């Protein structure tokens, strides 16, 4: 690295704000070798005596010292790395006179040692960024030869964003990849969507490949990552078959390098806090809401009536005493985050090793909310012979997490009256007597509530590589994954849940005092064999042929135990009495297998005309045998126009211009194992006082015609570089059609039901979706001087989702299960479907409002197809052209038939803008991320209480006769809002 003694980073984020201090210690380790042979020891001494010591300094193109540059004596294993000042000292053996100097991003130099033992060397930046190697599926290619939509992010960009989750560092840096954090709790992960939503049931997360095999990025130390490649189009991901349906993220971890041992230590600490919450009603603003609500019912006329608008005399007295509670302030605190990482790497020309240890600790903004990760990454590569290499990667982690009962919206909408603790410092069950409010801080007491996760993950990836002849590589690797997780849950006497479910006067144990233990184990084995042969014909035809076999086995089991009526809180989950009347248990098991065969050809003619074609034949045990196998082809073309003779006149301002086009098919079989076959469920039922065996069909109805859900993607792209690499541009246009979308469809109850509350369901390929989008990324080097640099990155993505058909074209709208979203034809996947509001009925509109059973102050619901003919008179036209009139005598009652699509949860476009400023040894990064056209479900809007008792934000501008607002309906003590 270049000479930086410390790095000061400032990122624009809501929470946490992190002040990072990174310290890298590069400590050359001295090695000595001893031999029992005295003669050999003499020869060694003579060899050193005949050699010499060479010293010097390595400088960059601006004359700045460079840290960590590798200096190696050619033809030997003797080497070193430069220190903080760019200096090196090297014992050069006799007969050797060439030094090899190398560093990432700079051209490797071979320098002949002259008579002078002092050698200062200036490095030249490698401006040939097009020769940078980019990892793709089952191989790697030079960036100049890429024909697919692939984005590469290097280590230095990933570690600029302090945090334990490396995917957060990609937000706004990869066009088309939308990343959001699921919540602000400690240890919460991220949700990712690449190029829009295509499927109804399958997860939208991309597949993660770490060092060639599936892995876990959430506990991977960002400092261990060498690069991240994001494969976006089907021509790049089709080689992964079903795994590539939503894109592929390939993570390559760091490996050891020949030379002396390198030790790196990195640490950072930061604060997690300063969250902004809405200002809630309190004091005068709270009682004014009660007054307005009761005035509408005639229960309040003046301040003399204040006492009777409260739920109890104690509540009124709390108001008079000024006993108001800011629940958000009481619940939330300032947390912290810290991370410590240590890595050791090094090796010889034959054996290289890398090992890292990492500890990450995050304390959330709720009491008892914390997340700790202990992880390690080990990588060993050994060259047995010139034609034989072996190695192994191991990634292990242990996570310990305590989750608070985090219900901020419940706290914000809670009645703000009363006191949290009594005069003795004990928590009040009810902050004020007579209310329905339970103290939300009860769970902060020791021993009354616990929700704890423990997770252990281990990934092993041994491999063997043969290179029997030039250009031929045969790799066989095995990936083994073990994932064991356990959730311990306890809600005891004195907890919020206990009093909420049992009542504030409850004492002693009951069914609401219970503990559960959930154990989950997941095993995954994957065996892949990759044959690659690269050869040239007449130095102008470069051909690479790749063949792959891939076999996968997945197994999952789960055990659940529950104990109720626990007598003592100290037991928690440690003393379950299995078999008692207060205990219950269950278990779950499933298994699936997959097999794939891949063939691919990459062709380059003179480096200008590029072609790639692949085909994958995949099989999944999740599907019926008749439809288990399917084929996924893909191809892509590239033309490097800038290498053509007719473009020679543009070389002074156009460094590179390449056009790309690709087409590919990907697929997924996103259904639970065993849901494609019929089975019998067994359970017991008491009949006549005796337990009888009962058999029934499984909840899923078998569909032998269920097949793969397949996406057909077309991608057109352009890569350009201007002003000798000062400006880089990448743009892509894509269309993805997904056919045979799998949807779990409930069967009519006329065919019977699985239970009184559950329908039978069937998985069917009955829907079709389409995604169309444009992406571009611009990287610029604005200013580059000896002491100051300014670089900028802009990414932009526009994506339009549309559902083309639903249920064989016979339906325009269906509910998407329990997600809270709807599926509407002609609209994006996961849309919001409910009443469309036109504001509030106002004074002077009484006759019109009466047609819909409303009056001034009520919500004005937009009724599709409803036309106003005159005051107090409306009509709708049916399919036959006939008018149906509605007035005060024939009122229209709004129902779910009047629901409309209101918006969707995916943004129309996103944009990222990053500026990095470097001055000598300091750097500052300013990052902005924008999302537009997205509708979110803001639960506080639904917390508006027309009675005024439950709290809501001060900015909720509700309707009164003197305040004819169109924002919120009238506050009215005896009225509820329509669902």
Attribute tags:
single chain, 979 residues, mainly beta, 22-stranded mixed beta sheet, 5-stranded mixed beta sheet, 10 helices, 51 strands, 7% helix, 47% strand, globular
Counting DSSP E segments of at least 2 residues, the number of strands comes to 51
Proportion of residues in helical segments: under 10%
Radius of gyration: 34 Å
The largest pleated sheet is described as: 22 strands, mixed
Based on Cα principal axes, name the global outline.
globular
Strand content: over 45%
The helix count comes to 10
* Class per helix and strand makeup: mainly beta
Task: Please provide a written account of the structure.
With 979 residues, the chain is mostly beta strands. Helix content is 7%, strand content 47%. The protein is built from 10 helices and 51 strands. The protein has a 22-stranded mixed β-sheet that branches. β28 and β29 form a beta hairpin. It is globular and about 105 Å long.
In short:
By secondary structure, this protein is mainly β. Helices cover 7% and strands 47% of the residues.
Explain the layout of strands and helices.
Elements: E1 8-9, E2 17-21, H1 38-50, E3 52-59, E4 70-73, E5 79-81, E6 87-92, E7 98-103, E8 106-112, E9 121-122, E10 133-136, E11 139-142, E12 150-154, H2 155-158, E13 177-181, E14 190-194, E15 207-210, E16 213-214, E17 225-231, H3 234-237, E18 248-253, E19 259-272, H4 284-295, H5 313-321, H6 327-331, E20 335-347, E21 351-363, E22 370-385, E23 388-402, H7 408-412, E24 449-466, E25 472-491, H8 496-502, E26 514-537, E27 541-564, E28 583-605, E29 609-620, E30 629-640, E31 654-668, E32 680-687, E33 690-697, E34 700-701, E35 709-722, E36 727-746, E37 761-784, E38 788-805, E39 813-815, E40 822-824, E41 831-834, E42 836-840, H9 846-850, E43 859-862, E44 867-870, E45 873-877, E46 883-886, E47 900-904, E48 909-919, E49 922-932, H10 939-942, E50 958-959, E51 968-970
Parallel strand pairs: 3-9, 15-18, 34-37, 50-51
Antiparallel strand pairs: 1-2, 2-19, 3-6, 4-5, 4-7, 7-8, 10-11, 12-17, 13-14, 15-16, 17-18, 19-20, 20-21, 21-22, 22-23, 23-24, 24-25, 25-26, 26-27, 27-28, 28-29, 29-30, 30-31, 31-35, 32-33, 35-36, 36-37, 37-38, 38-48, 39-40, 41-47, 42-43, 44-45, 45-46, 48-49
């Amino acid at each position: 690295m270049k000479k930086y003694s410390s790095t000061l980073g400032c990122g624009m984020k809501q929470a946490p704000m992190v002040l990072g201090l990174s310290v890298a210690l590069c400590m050359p380790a001295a090695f000595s070798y001893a031999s029992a042979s005295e003669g050999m020891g003499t020869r060694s001494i003579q060899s050193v005596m005949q050699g010499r010591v060479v010293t010097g300094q390595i400088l960059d193109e601006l004359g700045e010292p460079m840290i960590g540059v590798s200096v190696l004596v050619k033809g030997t294993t003797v080497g070193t790395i430069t220190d903080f000042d760019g200096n090196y000292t090297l014992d050069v053996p006799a007969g050797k006179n060439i030094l090899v100097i190398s560093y990432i991003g700079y051209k490797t130099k071979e320098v002949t040692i002259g008579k002078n033992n002092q050698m200062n060397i200036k490095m030249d930046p490698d401006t040939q960024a097009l020769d940078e190697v980019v990892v793709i599926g089952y191989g790697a290619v030079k960036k100049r030869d890429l024909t697919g939509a692939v984005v590469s992010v290097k280590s230095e960009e990933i570690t600029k964003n302090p945090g334990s989750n490396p995917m957060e560092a990609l937000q706004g840096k990869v066009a088309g990849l939308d990343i959001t954090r699921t919540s602000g709790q400690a240890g919460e992960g991220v949700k990712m969507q690449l190029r829009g939503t295509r499927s109804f049931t399958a997860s939208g997360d991309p597949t993660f490949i770490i060092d060639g095999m599936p892995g876990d990025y959430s506990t991977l130390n960002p400092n261990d990552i060498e690069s991240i490649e994001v494969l976006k189009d089907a021509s790049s991901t089709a080689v992964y078959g079903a795994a590539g349906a939503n894109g592929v993220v390939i993570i390559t971890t760091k490996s050891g390098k020949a030379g002396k041992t390198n030790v790196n230590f990195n640490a950072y600490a930061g604060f997690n806090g300063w969250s902004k919450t809405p200002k809630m009603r309190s004091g005068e603003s709270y009682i004014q809401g009660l007054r307005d609500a009761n005035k509408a019912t005639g229960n309040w006329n003046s301040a003399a009536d204040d006492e009777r608008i409260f739920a109890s005399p104690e509540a009124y007295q709390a108001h008079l005493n000024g006993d108001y509670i800011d629940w958000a302030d009481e619940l939330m605190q300032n947390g912290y985050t810290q991370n410590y990482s240590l890595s050791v790497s090094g090796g010889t020309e034959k054996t290289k090793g890398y090992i890292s240890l990492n500890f990450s600790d995050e304390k959330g903004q709720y009491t008892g909310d914390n997340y700790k990760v202990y992880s390690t990454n080990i990588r060993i590569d050994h060259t047995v012979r010139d034609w034989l290499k072996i190695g192994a990667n191991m990634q292990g982690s242990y996570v310990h997490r305590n989750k608070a009962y985090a219900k901020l919206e419940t706290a914000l909408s809670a009645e703000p009256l009363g006191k949290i603790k009594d005069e003795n410092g004990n928590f009040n069950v009810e902050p004020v007597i007579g209310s329905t409010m339970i103290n939300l801080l009860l769970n902060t007491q020791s021993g009354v509530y616990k929700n704890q996760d423990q997770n252990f993950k281990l990934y092993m990836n041994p491999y063997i590589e043969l290179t029997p002849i030039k250009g031929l590589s045969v790799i066989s690797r095995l990936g083994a994954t073990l994932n064991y997780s356990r959730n311990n849950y306890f809600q005891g006497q004195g907890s919020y849940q206990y009093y909420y479910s049992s009542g504030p006067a409850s004492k002693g144990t009951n069914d609401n005092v219970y503990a559960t233990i959930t154990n989950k184990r997941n095993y995954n084995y994957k065996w892949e064999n990759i044959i690659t042969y690269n050869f040239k014909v007449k130095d102008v035809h470069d051909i690479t042929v790749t063949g792959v076999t891939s076999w996968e086995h997945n197994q999952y089991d789960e055990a659940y135990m529950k104990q109720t009526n626990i007598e003592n809180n100290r037991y928690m989950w440690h003393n379950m009495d299995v078999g008692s009347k207060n205990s219950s248990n269950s278990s779950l098991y499933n298994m699936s297998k997959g097999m794939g065969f891949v063939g691919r050809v990459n062709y380059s003619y003179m480096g200008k005309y590029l072609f790639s074609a692949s085909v994958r034949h995949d099989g999944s045990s999740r599907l019926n045998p008749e439809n288990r196998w399917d084929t996924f082809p893909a191809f892509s073309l590239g033309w490097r126009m800038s290498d053509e003779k007719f473009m020679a006149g543009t070389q002074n301002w156009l460094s590179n211009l390449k056009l790309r086009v690709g087409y590919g098919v990907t697929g997924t079989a996103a259904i639970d194992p065993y849901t494609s076959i019929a089975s019998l469920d067994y359970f017991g039922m008491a009949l006549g006082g005796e337990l009888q065996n009962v058999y029934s069909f499984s909840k899923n109805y078998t569909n032998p015609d269920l097949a793969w859900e397949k996406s057909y993607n077309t991608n057109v792209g352009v890569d350009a570089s201007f002003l000798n690499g000062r400006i880089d541009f990448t743009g892509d246009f894509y269309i993805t059609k997904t056919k045979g979308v799998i949807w779990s469809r409930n069967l009519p109850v006329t065919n019977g039901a699985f239970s009184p509350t559950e329908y039978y369901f069937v998985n069917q390929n009955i829907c079709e979706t389409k995604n169309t989008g444009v992406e571009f990324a611009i990287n610029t080097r604005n200013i580059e001087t000896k002491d100051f640099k300014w670089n900028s990155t802009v990414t932009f993505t526009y994506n339009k989702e549309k559902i083309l058909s639903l249920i064989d074209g016979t339906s325009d709208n269906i509910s998407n299960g329990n997600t809270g979203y709807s599926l509407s034809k002609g609209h994006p996947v996961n849309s919001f479907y409910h009443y469309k509001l036109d504001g509030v009925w106002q004074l002077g509109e009484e006759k019109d409002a009466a047609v819909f059973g409303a009056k001034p102050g009520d919500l004005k619901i937009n009724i599709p197809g409803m036309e106003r003919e005159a005051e107090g008179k409306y009509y709708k036209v049916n399919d036959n052209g006939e008018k149906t009139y509605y007035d005060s005598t024939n009122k229209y009652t709004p129902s779910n038939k009047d629901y409309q699509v209101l918006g969707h949860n995916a943004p129309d476009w996103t944009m990222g803008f990053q500026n990095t400023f470097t001055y000598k040894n300091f750097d500052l990064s300013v990052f902005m991320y924008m999302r537009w056209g997205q509708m979110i479900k803001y639960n506080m809007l639904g917390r508006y209480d027309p009675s005024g008792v439950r709290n809501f934000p001060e900015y909720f501008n509700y309707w009164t006769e003197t305040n004819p607002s169109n924002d919120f309906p009238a506050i009215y003590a005896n009225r509820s809002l329509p669902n």
